[in-house]
Amino acid sequence: MSIQKQAALAAACLAVLVAGTTASDHAQASSCPSVADPKGLKPQFAQQAELAEVEQQLGRKLAFAENPLFAGRVKAGALPPVADRLPAEPLVLMPYEECGRYGGTLRGLSRALESGTSEILSWRQVNLVRLSDDLSTIVPNVAKSWSWSDDRKSITFVLRKGHRWSDGKPFTTDDVVFYFDDLVKNKELHPTTPAVWMAGGKPVEVEKLDAVTFKLTFGAPVPGLLHYLATGGSFFAAYAPKHYYTPYHIKYNPKADEDAKAAGAENWVKRFKQLWDRWKDAETINPAALKRPTLESHVLEVETNTQRRAFIANPYYFKVDTAGKQLPYIDRHNERFLNKEVAMLAILNGEVDQKAQGVDLENYPLLKENEAKGGYRLSMPPGQSGDPIAFNITHTDPVLRAIFSDLRFRQAMSLALNRAEMNETLWFGLGKPQQALPLGVPFTTDADRRYMIQYDPKKANQLLDEMGLKRGANNMRMRPDGKPLTILWEYSSQFASPGYVQLVQGYWRAAGVEVNLKEITTQLTRQKALAGDADINMEWDVPFEPNLISQPELYTPPYRSSSPLFGAAWRQWHLSKGEKGAEPPAWAKRLYALEDEWRSVVPRSPRYMEIGREMVRINLENLTIIGTIADLPGPTVVSKKLANVRDWTVQHYNFARTYPFRPDQWYFKD
Question: What is the greatest pairwise CA distance in the chain?
Fold first, then answer.
């Protein structure tokens, strides 16, 4: 394009932007149905409706409006008009306060690539269904509707007619079938089918019924499937753009291996995994992501680097507001990667529009003091817990494995913790000392929460003495092989603050167990966890009931597949029926049996309650994960310029961070 044409296009865009904020926009904002003032609109699902519902109840057709961001491209013929970009059946969102204005850049922070990024991912993510902000109701999203079979072994989804990927190509059931048959069930990409897509010992079967209708069939009832898609699985879209990925897949391109080697990869599998990842943030790291289509509200705008990641609104996004304006309102997302100290300065200086993930409670006084200066509002939603600790009882070092596997050691380490002091010192006394347990479930008791949380250094020392861990010349304990017993605690500040690990270090040293601390990156902690040579692992997202309903594996070894606490080979043994991995102890085998049964039981049924209680008992009695504090609030910062933002009722990864609170209808006020 010539310089003259570029200048003309820029002038046209500027003219539209200026024209896009007239008084008529303000009148439209005040007249459209919202959650605050529904104006008689009563949809089937709260806060959102299908187009036909809106038009029938309002008694008129909804006229669609264009984001000025795209007007220049539309005028130049590079992009169809908005009515031709939207699905025939767009999802209509009722904004919280009012229909908003277009424009602006939503500024956020993360720790680093693959470290503390789920919050900003939640700004733009989508999946087949979504969890409403009541944190219990599952509502339509990418899928228009669904219907279960009577036995809950199969579910049929209906997509939206005319829905398009961000590159304008049709999104159909072919993209869903490709995801399941060619990605999830491909043995080279997934040697073991992910647990959530297994039931009754069989992987899920997908059937295309027509261009917008597909059916998933399982070998056993899966009543919690929608809970998975709306909570723990909300970050992992159950579809993939077939038209984009087939050139890299050996099934569709016989020369995929040759092409991969020419591109510098070992084979097609290695190259494919560079381009596709179930964790959507990982896909944006490769430069090829600039061309990878998505259904998310924003698409990658420039190549990602170690300093920042930038996104721009998706011109084919499938939602509109009740005035017919295509969402999202906010044009761009800007994600900077900063360490914890610099990130806090950026927040205090008003350089961040929304931040909660990784903001420690210890920063609350500083954040509160600087609210006015930083131009933000600080809230304290619940949902946080003191950092859990899991000793690697399947350690690659046989001596450490024997020590950590001895229940007495884990009991001693729990009893050596002064949780009351930790609560006061680190968390202003706002939490409650508690053992590591699922939260918000109906089958835990006060006795469960208090299990071995008393501060009892005398008992802790007695247990270590019984193990034969004798004290040496410096009064610190020795391993059975005569070497000093030293725990190397390599931690990431994403999961534990220096103050936390230093307090714990002091308690354990008092019991004669030497602890050396070393802060490393989140990426490295995950690598070490996967290798099985970390002494302590901490990356466990405490499951709430909606997560546990569909993902009981969050409460059985290894507790997290991408960053296992311990026992990854045990799960491999279980899934392969003993052909691979390592045979687990009896208590872990029982947990796996309960996990398998849990997937088929109806939530809150008598058997559901029985299984839940037994899983809690087994984990507690074996102190698989040592807990510290629960019921902690999480500081949440929101710019005072940001509108349509309601107070969080929970702040947690397992509720998909901001996603239940609908970031695509946020906007910036004058």
Answer: 86
